[in-house]
């Protein structure tokens, strides 16, 4: 059998410790599949004394990840520390410059430095593999980069954040408020103490920027994204979605349009019978629309130690087999700047929820403003107003009105709603959710 692949791992937390365990438990199969053994020989973390539930006694210990990355006794460097800056960046760059292969699960690092690191890998002959950075155990990177290398892809979209999907699922099923769900997600360890990175859509955005690059051959550019989170979603929206035949998901969508490439993250109404709508809880899913074939949907665990380690170990196996592919599916020098389609020109259907003031002419004023902006309605649902507020003079409670539009533009909807607000015929802010068709 050929010489073993000698691996150094920096980061022994949730993912790193699972990678050590998976390689130890799967040693024989891994060697058979790769044609050579895969051996962890050195590890690095901040605290040497911490019990990580795995036997680290046989490995050399490094306290400096950059020193481990440059160590001539390793062939592959596995970065599982996280963070877009140093030491993750310095260590990955040092390993690549030394001609080693790098495997990482670090979406933040790739969103920020992915193209430069890919160029370094190509120049020095190493691989840069990052299957675990998007969708955990779901093999979406390899599907886009390798399995669909011969296909033109028009759209890729998915549920890329388990925390948000867990919260939306529970809000829908148990009619819980956003705040109640967030507390529950934090108690169960699905949401961080500071959940804003997940719920405001930034985690999804980093992952989408990587998928968009793989799909369209564009340079990873988080600034090309429109990002909106789920904190404005109310149970009233989930109930209305249910009635109208939709579910609400936080989607990352990258799509080629005549105006350029749209990369957007926002709560989205998806038809209840679509594959993506069936995905509940912390599970992730990605749908790929390749020209000429029916959509492909990949579903699976998007996070967690073992799920993420599964993708990391498969990337290490590729290195052991000697597989080298351009990290983003084509040489880094051939990646283009993305022609960003302005969000104002996004075209699609919209869900709009308004609180119309309970007085004559409100509904007519709303209808007039929408018509002025050429917005046609697919459906209009007017709920009953509650009883008059405390019997006060001046009319009853505002009346919830739910509108579903036919395809229109973001610009038209925004302008129509601004005019409706100026007319003072609604209370509060209108709710706006984009609809994504199958
Ligand atoms: N957790 C998931 O489900 C998941 C899913 C997909 C992708 N990822 C990605 O995988 C990576 C690791 O995530 P994780 O959840 O395993 O993180 P984690 O549990 O916080 O572990 C991070 C590890 O990195 C070590 N570390 C941090 N800074 C270091 C430094 N300056 N020098 C040396 N070691 C350092 C820590 O050492 P100590 O243990 O000594 O503190 C710890 O072992 C991240 O990029 C994350 O985005 C995670």
Task: Walk me through the structure.
The strands form two sheets. Strands 7, 8, 9, 10, 11, 12, 13, 14, 15, 16 and 17 form an eleven-stranded mixed beta sheet that branches. The radius of gyration is 25 Å and the shape is elongated. Helix 4 (88-97) runs parallel beside helix 5, helix 5 runs parallel beside helix 10 (202-216) and helix 7 (162-174) crosses helix 8. The longest helix has 18 residues, at 107-124. The chain is built from 14 helices and 17 strands. The protein is α/β, with parallel strands linked by helices and 438 residues long. Helix 5 (107-124) links the parallel strand 5 (101-104) and strand 6 (128-129). Residues 10-16, 44-47, 50, 65, 80-82, 87, 105-107, 132, 136, 303-304, 308 line the site of NADP nicotinamide-adenine-dinucleotide phosphate.
Rg over CA atoms, rounded to whole Å, is 25 Å
Mean pLDDT over the full residue set: 95
The backbone outline, from C-alpha atoms, is: elongated
Oligomer: single chain
Structural class: alpha/beta
Number of helices: 14
Bound molecules: NADP nicotinamide-adenine-dinucleotide phosphate
Number of DSSP strand runs? 17
Helix content: 25-40%
What is this structure, in a nutshell?
This protein has 438 residues and is an alpha/beta fold. It has helices at 14-25, 27-34, 65-70, 88-97, 107-124, 140-147, 162-174, 178-187, 196-199, 202-216, 235-244, 305-320, 362-372, 410-422; strands at residues 5-10, 38-44, 60-62, 76-79, 101-104, 128-129, 153-159, 226-227, 246-257, 260-271, 283-290, 296-301, 347-356, 377-382, 399-405, 408-409, 426-435. It contains 14 helices and 17 strands.
